[in-house]
Design a protein that fits this description.
The protein is α+β, with helices and mostly antiparallel strands. The protein is about 25% helix and about 25% strand. The chain is built from four helices and ten strands, in the order H-E-H-E-E-E-E-H-E-E-H-E-E-E. The strands form two sheets. It has an eight-stranded mixed beta sheet, with helices on both faces. The chain has a two-stranded antiparallel ribbon with strand order 3-4. The protein is globular and about 40 Å long. It starts with a helix and ends with a strand. Keywords: Signal.
């Protein structure tokens, strides 16, 4: 009888011990690009970089991290694709330290002023928030995380340059719109935010347009509910 109990208990014990080790192998939410020679600043093509000041965690729902998924989420929080599908200017690139080297932005999305169909035409005219999306998915960091360069820009009459303090303001407005529960196209999202420091520098050195930043990055985990 004693031997029977041992034979039953040992397999159960080994199963319980195996669970934590399996969980510990979960991919990280993101990998700091500088770990593998990348940067948290993209290449704006003017001798400076724009800070990637928001990260959509790789632990978000998988559908959010796709091209169509981030566009739908953007529409849920007040952004949409560019006016009439027209993009002015060259795409920016970023090296996210995932082993692929510099990669062009996946998409650029603009504030839609309440109209996801043509509202971004108004943003192109009067300015507002916009962001570029870069995906970390190479062999050295296959997290699927989305790195966003978010900023507030001035109107067309000012050549769409970044507003004073526009990187910090753009990030904060984006996160305020995203946090909590939002819906679009029959999909409902629940988003939580975490503040990270130490990934970006502080000050204006190396920053596009010489605009100072506070060095804060917001990590968002977006779950489809």
């Amino acid at each position: 009888m004693f031997l029977k109990h041992i034979l039953v208990v040992l397999p159960l014990a080994s199963f319980v011990l195996a669970v934590p080790s399996k969980l510990s192998r979960q991919a990280p939410a993101f990998v700091d690009p500088s770990t593998n020679g990348g940067s948290m600043l993209d290449n704006a093509g003017s001798g400076g970089g724009e800070p990637m000041n928001v990260i959509i965690s790789g632990h978000s729902s998988a559908a959010v991290l796709t091209d169509s998924g981030i566009i739908n989420f953007a529409k849920a929080i007040g952004f949409s694709t560019e006016c009439l599908g027209i993009h002015i200017g060259d795409p920016q690139s970023a090296d996210l330290g995932d082993g692929r080297g510099p990669q062009n932005q996946t998409v650029e999305l603009r504030q839609d002023y309440g109209d996801p169909d043509v509202g971004t035409c108004l943003e192109s005219l009067i300015g507002g928030n916009h962001f570029r999306v870069f995906r970390q998915n190479g062999p050295l960091a296959p997290t699927g995380a989305l790195f966003l360069a978010v900023s507030q820009e001035q109107p067309a009459t000012e050549s769409h340059t970044i507003s004073p303090n526009g990187y910090n303001l753009g990030r904060d407005n984006f996160v305020a719109n995203a946090t909590g529960t939002r819906s679009f196209g029959g999909v409902t999202y629940s988003t939580v935010s975490e503040t990270l420091t130490g990934l970006l520098p502080t000050g204006s050195a190396g920053i596009n347009h010489g605009i100072s930043i506070d060095g804060v990055v917001k990590l968002l985990t977006v779950t489809i509910v």
